[in-house]
């Protein structure tokens, strides 16, 4: 008997620390919710489907909700977002649980995108680390901080595959590849949600934007999307599916149309695919006023589009209040059913239950955790580490980097001593005053051994009307009172007195992100003029480029001696950049999105089809698929990134040249660190299906391993390939493999690879 009690106690203890204490059995949850719903009026049920924002955060639509307190008291609100801070959240929750009739607690959401108060590099940057544990950790830390401040719901991860860098929101995703994108989607969901939603430090994730938002025509924000099902299933849908499989509690519908039907009112998408095919059990929230916007899409008036959305499978209406104001009428008129309202309400109540809000509506408002977690020193340390691992070294002629910790450095450029642009887009709760600019970081890391001279040199842009559009959330492009010539003279003055120039240039943070599409993705003219003058000094030139998207940097990479692409790196940008420039960390990032040579090449991506007249190389060939005025290849391919050291790949060995559908084969390669530094390398595995019932890409990523090698060290890297790696959606959208020849490639980027081949046999 005693043993049994002891075992029960141990079990209880294990379950509690694993966070299962709040996750009572489904039957308990069902009983609870059924009995609650029996007490609810129709209006109260519709109220749960209403998500409002009282303002104060970043409002990305035209509307900010009004009379929020009254609506909460009347049971007309299911959740809020844009309310930041434990105290404010507690106050709002108090209204719900003391003043509304049934005291149903509210959900509190926010765009926790790359960190919370402590801001990490933008998601595209984090993806370049190819480090899944690190990415998961970044979401876990963000969740720990955000939940201590009252939040329980993150509008993240954004997993939209994007092949068009003109689209400003490439900054928020993981680049162009479905395989890598899926791994990252999973890591993020696991990071936010931990072992389940039961703990008070787990955030419910909301995978977005479902679906295909990254394929807007011309890269223009909110534009039309149109693509074949084969393309969707094979390239664009996998990351959303991976997030669903990882258990995301919610999904956000996107703004764009799919088959000419807005995603928010698209029944095929939200019900047939998401719920029936993929088995998603959580709830779907619209994007900001996306229900109302269906009127602009030409789908009818507010009542019609609200009914369309509910019928399609949407559960929660963000900001627009179409559900709140029209669903009752639609029910009376037979345009929606009571069951549809009940189902949506039930899914939202289930999320609240799983988050433990019915047990304790204030469980995420914990002042002790707040004091301990928010902006704690360990989070800053992590921010620095994450940033270092996200940078991509694009060029390093004659091993100019790392810099010596001696002599004189001219640190020049509009982003060299700037705090306002370090955090990057969608740092809703970050505080740029806390960020470290490069000048400060360089001084921190080099101590007194280096003489650092600083000059701004140029504005990010001299164009005042452009600056006005970028400066909507505060000054990001600060046009100096001095003339461009005065700034330039100062910069040239210090450049001439230095041993090396480090120019920190690029995009302001709000030149990417939502509603920040660009038709030209170059370095603005003011900065290019500066670079050309710096080049003329004949001093070695290092470029540190900050940006939220790939840029067309042909002149820059040709003329600089070294180029470090740092994206927007978050709070610790300056320290991390200095760590890398001075060699405290050997860069290991690899691009997750191709860099075009020119905008005219877009979309340029590595996993393209072959065409019937493929060009054998980059030289022009008449009547082949190419351009008269630019090569086919990107400026920098997917998977590319240098290190201070060098890696040599040995011969690729396959355990067999035939693969049976029930078996596996192993591909092995020896990688040697042949340079002068210890370093990390991302070893990448690509496959090509040579003959199939539909045209298949020239390469597809199917595996990768990030390895650390001391200088001189070698490691045997092995990949196991099985039938799952060869599957694709055929013309009938069946997930199949087809026997035949396959090629296999292993290398340090998608272009420089060792090749092998095998045959798939039944
Ligand atoms: C964006 C979403 C975001 C939402 C709430 C929208 O405009 O598209 O990504 O989660 O606003 O802030």
Topology record:
Blueprint: H1 2-17, H2 26-39, H3 42-48, E1 50-52, H4 68-73, E2 79-81, H5 86-99, E3 107-110, H6 123-127, H7 132-148, E4 153-154, H8 178-193, E5 204-210, H9 229-236, H10 238-245, E6 250-253, E7 257-258, E8 261-262, H11 267-277, E9 283-285, H12 290-296, H13 302-312, E10 317-318, H14 322-332, H15 338-354, H16 367-373, H17 377-390, E11 392-396, E12 408-412, H18 438-446, E13 451-455, H19 464-470, H20 484-496, E14 500-506, H21 525-536, E15 541-546, H22 554-559, E16 562-565, H23 573-581, E17 647-649, E18 653-654, E19 658-660, E20 664-673, E21 679-689, E22 700-709, E23 714-722, E24 728-729, E25 735-736, E26 740-747, E27 753-761
Parallel strand pairs: 1-2, 1-10, 2-3, 3-4, 4-5, 5-6, 6-9, 12-13, 12-14, 14-15, 15-16, 19-27
Antiparallel strand pairs: 7-8, 11-16, 17-20, 18-20, 20-23, 21-22, 21-26, 24-25, 26-27
Helix pairs in contact: 2-15, 3-14, 3-15, 7-8, 7-16, 7-17, 8-10, 12-13, 13-14, 17-23, 18-23, 20-21
Bound molecules: beta-D-glucopyranose (BGC).
Describe it for me?
By secondary structure, the protein is α/β, with parallel strands linked by helices. It has 4 domains: 1-38; 39-371, TIM Barrel (Alpha-Beta Barrel); 379-601, Rossmann fold; 647-761, Immunoglobulin-like (Sandwich). An 8-stranded parallel β-sheet has the order 9-6-5-4-3-2-1-10. The N and C termini lie far apart (56 Å). Bound molecules: beta-D-glucopyranose (BGC).
């Amino acid at each position: 008997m005693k043993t049994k009690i002891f075992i029960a106690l141990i079990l209880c203890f294990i379950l509690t620390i694993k966070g299962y204490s709040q996750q009572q059995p489904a039957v308990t949850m069902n009983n609870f919710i059924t009995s609650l719903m029996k007490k609810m009026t129709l209006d109260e049920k519709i109220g749960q489907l209403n998500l409002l924002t009282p303002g104060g955060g970043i409002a990305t639509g035209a509307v900010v909700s009004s009379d929020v307190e009254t609506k909460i008291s009347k049971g007309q609100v299911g959740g809020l977002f844009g309310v930041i801070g434990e105290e404010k959240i507690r106050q709002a929750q108090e209204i719900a649980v003391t003043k509304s009739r049934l005291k149903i607690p509210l959900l509190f959401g926010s765009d926790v995108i790359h960190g919370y108060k402590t801001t990490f590099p933008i998601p595209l940057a984090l993806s370049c680390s190819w480090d899944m544990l690190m990415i998961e950790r970044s979401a876990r830390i963000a969740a720990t901080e955000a939940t201590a401040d009252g939040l329980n719901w993150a509008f993240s991860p954004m997993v939209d595959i994007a092949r068009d860098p003109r689209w400003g929101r490439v900054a928020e995703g993981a680049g162009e590849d479905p395989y890598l994108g899926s791994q990252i989607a999973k890591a993020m969901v696991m990071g936010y949600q931990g072992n389940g939603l039961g703990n008070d430090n787990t955030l419910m994730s909301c995978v977005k934007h479902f679906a295909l938002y990254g394929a807007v025509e011309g890269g223009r924000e909110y534009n039309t999307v149109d693509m074949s099902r084969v393309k969707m299933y094979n390239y664009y849908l996998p990351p959303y599916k991976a997030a669903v499989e990882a258990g995301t509690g919610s999904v956000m519908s996107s703004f764009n149309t799919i088959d000419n039907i807005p995603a928010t009112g698209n029944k095929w998408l939200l019900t047939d695919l998401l719920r029936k095919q993929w088995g998603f059990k959580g709830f779907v929230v619209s994007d900001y006023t996306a229900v109302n916007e269906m009127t602009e899409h030409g789908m009818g008036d507010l009542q019609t589009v609200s009914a369309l959305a509910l019928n399609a499978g949407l559960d929660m209406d963000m900001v627009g209040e179409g559900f709140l104001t029209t669903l009752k009428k639609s029910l009376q008129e037979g345009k929606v059913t009571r069951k549809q309202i009940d189902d949506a309400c039930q899914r939202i109540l289930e999320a609240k239950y799983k988050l433990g809000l019915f047990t304790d509506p204030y469980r995420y408002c914990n002042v002790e955790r707040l004091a301990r977690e928010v902006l704690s020193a360990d989070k800053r340390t992590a921010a620095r580490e994450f940033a270092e691992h996200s940078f991509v070294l694009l060029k390093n002629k004659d091993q100019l980097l790392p810099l010596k910790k001696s002599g004189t450095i001219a640190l020049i450029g509009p982003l060299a001593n700037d705090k306002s642009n370090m955090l990057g887009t969608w740092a809703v709760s970050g505080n740029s005053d806390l960020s470290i600019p490069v000048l400060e970081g360089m001084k921190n890391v080099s101590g007194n051994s280096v003489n650092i001279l600083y000059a701004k040199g140029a504005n990010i842009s001299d164009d005042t009307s452009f600056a006005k559009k970028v400066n909507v959330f505060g000054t990001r492009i600060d046009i100096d009172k001095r003339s461009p010539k005065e700034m330039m003279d100062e910069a040239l003055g210090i450049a001439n007195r230095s041993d090396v120039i480090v120019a920190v240039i690029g995009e302001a943070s709000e030149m990417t992100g939502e509603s920040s599409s660009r038709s030209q993705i170059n370095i603005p003219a003011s900065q290019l003029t500066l670079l050309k003058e710096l080049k003329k000094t004949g001093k070695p030139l290092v470029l540190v480029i900050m940006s939220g998207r790939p840029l067309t940097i042909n002149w820059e990479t040709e003329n600089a001696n070294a180029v470090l692409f740092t994206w927007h790196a978050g709070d610790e940008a300056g320290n991390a950049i200095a760590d890398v420039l001075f060699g405290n960390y050997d860069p290991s990032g690899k691009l997750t999105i191709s860099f075009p040579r020119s905008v005219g090449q877009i979309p340029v991506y590595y996993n393209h089809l072959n065409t019937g007249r493929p060009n054998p190389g980059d030289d022009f060939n008449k009547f082949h698929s190419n351009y008269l005025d630019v090569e086919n290849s990107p400026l920098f391919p997917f998977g590319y990134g240098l290190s201070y050291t060098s890696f040599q790949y040995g011969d690729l060995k396959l355990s067999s040249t035939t693969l049976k559908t029930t078996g596996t084969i192993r591909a092995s390669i020896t990688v040697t660190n042949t340079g002068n530094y210890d370093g990390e390398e991302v070893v990448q595995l690509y496959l090509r299906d040579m003959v199939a019932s539909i045209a298949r890409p020239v390469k597809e990523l199917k595996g990768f391993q990030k390895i650390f090698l001391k200088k001189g060290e070698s490691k045997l890297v092995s990949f196991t390939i099985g039938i799952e790696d060869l599957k694709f959606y055929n013309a009938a959208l069946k997930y199949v493999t087809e026997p035949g020849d396959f090629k296999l490639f292993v290398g340090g980027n998608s272009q420089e690879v060792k090749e092998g081949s095998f045959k798939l046999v039944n």
